[in-house]
Amino acid sequence: MGKQMIAPILFKNVKVRAVLVPLRRPVIAGIGRFDRWPLVLVDIETTSGIVGRSYVAPYRLSAVSAVVAEVRDLGEALNGKSIAPFDAFEGAMKALNVVGVSGISTIAMSAIDMAAWDAFSKAADLPLAVFLGGTLGPVRAYNSNGLWRHEVGTIAAEARSLQAEGGFSAMKLRLGNTHVRDDLAAIRAVREGVGTDIDLMVDFNQALGLGDAIRRCHELDDEDLYWFEEPIAYDNVRGYAQLAHQVRTPLQMGENYYGPRDLFTFLAAGAVHYAMADLMRIGGVTGWLRAAAIASAAGIQLSNHLYPEIAAHLLRVTPTAHWLEWVDWANPILAEPLEPEGGQVTASARSGTGIDWNEKGVSKYAIDI
Q1: Does residue 29 contact residue 148 with C-beta atoms inside 8 Å?
Q2: Distance of alpha carbon 303 from alpha carbon 292, whole angstroms
Q3: Alpha-carbon span 301 to 239, nearest angstrom
Q4: 329-332 contacts: CB < 8 A, separation 24 or more?
Q5: pLDDT digit string (tens) for 333-348?
Q6: What 3-state class would DSSP assign to 25?
Q7: Whole-number Cα distances in Å, 28 to 120, 152, 203, 308
Q8: Per residue in 109-123, is it b (16+ CB within 10 Å) or e — as a string?
Q9: Cystine design at 131: which of 85, 88, 126, 331 (Cβ 3.0–4.6 Å)?
Q10: At 320, is the secondary structure helix, strand, or coil?
Q11: DSSP letters spanning 237-301
């Protein structure tokens, strides 16, 4: 019996657009204040008519043009080639090595990679989680849509609102104020709003120096917090290793890992207790799968940072899957946003990642690039 040939899916064109969407609650942290959020939207068009979609969020509006230029450059190099995400990932890594594979290079490569996996799983008419060998199902989530560093008098009411949005029993609070008394006041305001049974993660957004972080984390160790996230600069490996051995509350970090090797470096140094990966920086779906294998081998639980639409698929095939970070920041331009229920999020059952554009929203918030 002869072999059945499967026609390859070929790249035809990469379309890139950008939007600036409003946030329901402004992001206020050590990195600045953001009332609107820039997104770069990527559509990979194929010769078979399938379109793979993804988005990335480069934080700063001024960075959008550089990301768009790199995505277009990578897209041109892929025209006419088969959609094979692993091959495209390795090819991009080699092509970009001469200019450096962190920063804009990885962000652009990740955008292409996520869209390619969307197209690849659509061609099989399977949701991404199923295409990767898993199943669809709920993933436990914490609400990360608020509780930024702002007036403490509003925090209790905001915590109640966040809890009610999707039945959440976990949420994230941002700390790193000048004085520990202000961090303690914020923690107690959340407890006042939603009680003591909720799992409360706290994120310092790299606000502290090492000495201050050691002191601050010791001062907060008795507050029954779920984790301390990024208390010091994300690239201070020795500092995190030192801190990890001095605090009782587990350390969490990883949103700034550029590629799986960064994760390996921190795990090898004993610098974290939990890990997370940001799809824009870890290398898209391909980078996530490699990072998940590293975390699994090390026995470290892995959560996502942002991009819940895709992370809800990937956590279903991650051996040490931990928490899904829930944000709705891309909802204004998504045709079918996910809806959390009972503190859990279930990925779309549509083929691919389930990402599709609300073109009216895209037009409304479009920016020139």
Answers
A1: yes
A2: 10
A3: 21
A4: 329/21, 329/23, 329/37, 329/57, 330/21, 330/39, 330/55, 330/57, 332/19, 332/21, 332/22, 332/358, 332/361, 332/364, 332/365
A5: 999 999 999 999 999 9
A6: strand
A7: 37, 13, 12, 21
A8: bbbbbbbbbbbbbbb
A9: 126
A10: coil
A11: HHHHHHHHTT-SSPEEE-TT--SHHHHHHHHHTT--SEEEEEHHHHTHHHHHHHHHHHHHHHT--
Q: How sure is the predictor about 99, in pLDDT bands with cuts at 50, 70 and 90?
A: confident
| pTM of structure | 0.96
**Amino acid (one-letter) located at 276:** M
Task: Give me the residue label for tokens 């559509």.
Answer: 43
Total residue count of the chain as it appears in this document: 369
Q: What is the pLDDT of residues 33-54, one digit of tens each?
A: 999 999 999 999 999 999 999 9
- Burial of 98: CB neighbours in 10 Å, binned 0-12, 13-18, 19+: exposed
Q: Three-state SS for 318?
A: coil
The answer to whether 291 and 262 have CB atoms below 8 angstroms apart is no
β-sheet bridge partners, residue 142: 325
Say which residues have a Cβ less than 8 Å from residue 91's Cβ, sequence separation at least 6. Answer: 77
**Crossing angle between the packed helical segments 284-298 and 260-268, to the nearest 10 degrees:** 20
Tokens describing residue 290 = 């490699």
